[in-house]
Design a protein that fits this description.
single chain, alpha+beta, Arc Repressor Mutant, subunit A, Aminopeptidase, 2 domains, two-stranded antiparallel sheet, 10 helices, 9 strands, globular
Length: about 325
């Protein structure tokens, strides 16, 4: 695509700002984020711990690095005790990457360092400036990646997280569940009818102060959803339910934003525990749950969804 006259007006300012970002964030050094690790290794820990990446092949794509470079980096992280590998349940040829306890502590330090950088910078600006900076950086980063991978699609649209019931909550949340679970697990009509009944029941109880739902909205359309049911379990326990995002937004960070809103509601509400049920083998989702404090508490075989599945209960103590 040929650059327009208007785009050339912004060429030099964007180049200048990009260079300054690289310098101020510390990428000119041999280590990053207060660690003794190189930038590529820091980014690998972040992606594995926070961004639903769990294989070397995925890291190559996400980090834009050659396979040999990623392999050397991962071997160093494994030897350093930051990572371990596990057999994959999806493909016997794959090895799944997991943070060790040491790796989780390292990632926590990286996140604290990065959060201080951002908050210190935002502290010098008007409060309203944050939204524009976030939207602009996200759009620019998405456009850079789209050009690199040859994707002519537009960058991911801006997504708003809104609380409370919205028209179409049941239908759209059910549709997104079926889009995902019919493709990945093979669920059909029985699953759809069961989830539909559960969502309808939850929608009828959203006015209760212990219950809440959040929708991710793009141009007013629901593209993600998560709900907290604070009534059904009793004993001051919350139930995280109906967590799903549209297939087009997987890996965009929208799921994390929804999950953060839900767990913040549980912490503010003083629930002593938050429970969620999922299925074994959905490793990307498990990464996300564990990153906000959920721990696997129970596994059991069940057929309540129309076919044999290993169900998993994750529990998060009050944060």
């Amino acid at each position: 695509m040929m650059p327009t006259a208007e785009s050339r007006l912004y060429l030099q300012p964007i180049r200048d700002a990009s260079r300054h970002l690289v310098r101020e964030l510390g990428f000119m050094g041999s280590t990053l984020a207060g660690t003794d690790l190189p930038p590529s290794a820091v980014h690998a820990l972040i992606e594995i711990g926070d961004r639903q990446v769990d294989t070397a092949a995925q890291l190559c794509t996400v980090l834009n690095l050659e396979k040999s470079s990623v392999s050397r980096m991962l071997n160093k992280l494994i030897k350093a005790g930051e990572l371990v590998t596990q057999p994959s349940e999806r493909d016997a040829r794959e090895k799944i990457l997991r943070l060790t306890e040491q790796g989780r502590q390292t990632l926590a330090g990286i996140n604290r360092f990065a959060e201080r950088q951002v908050l210190n910078a935002l502290g010098t600006l008007p409060a309203a400036a944050g939204a524009g900076i976030a939207a602009g950086l996200q759009t620019y980063a998405a456009a850079l990646r789209a050009h690199r991978v040859g994707d002519g699609a537009l960058p991911v649209p801006e997504v708003e997280i809104a609380s409370g019931y919205r028209p179409g909550f049941v239908a759209r949340t059910l549709e997104m569940h079926m889009q995902y679970y019919s493709r990945t697990v093979g669920f059909g009509a029985f699953f759809e009818s069961t989830v539909g009944v559960a969502l309808a029941d939850l929608a009828g109880r959203l006015s209760h102060p212990l219950n809440e739902t959040w929708s991710a909205l793009s141009d007013g359309r629901i593209v993600g959803s998560v709900s907290i049911d604070g009534e059904s379990l009793g004993d001051n326990r919350a139930h995280l339910r109906a967590f799903i995002i549209d297939d087009s937004l997987r890996g965009s960070g929208v799921g994390r934003r929804l999950l953060n809103r839900a767990v913040a509601f549980c912490d503010k509400g003083g629930f002593r525990e938050t429970h969620l049920w999922t299925f074994k083998g959905l490793d990307a989702a498990r990464h996300l749950y564990e990153s906000v404090g959920f721990v696997l508490a129970e596994e059991q075989q069940g057929e309540q969804w129309g076919q044999p599945m290993t169900e998993q209960l994750f529990i998060r103590p009050q944060g």
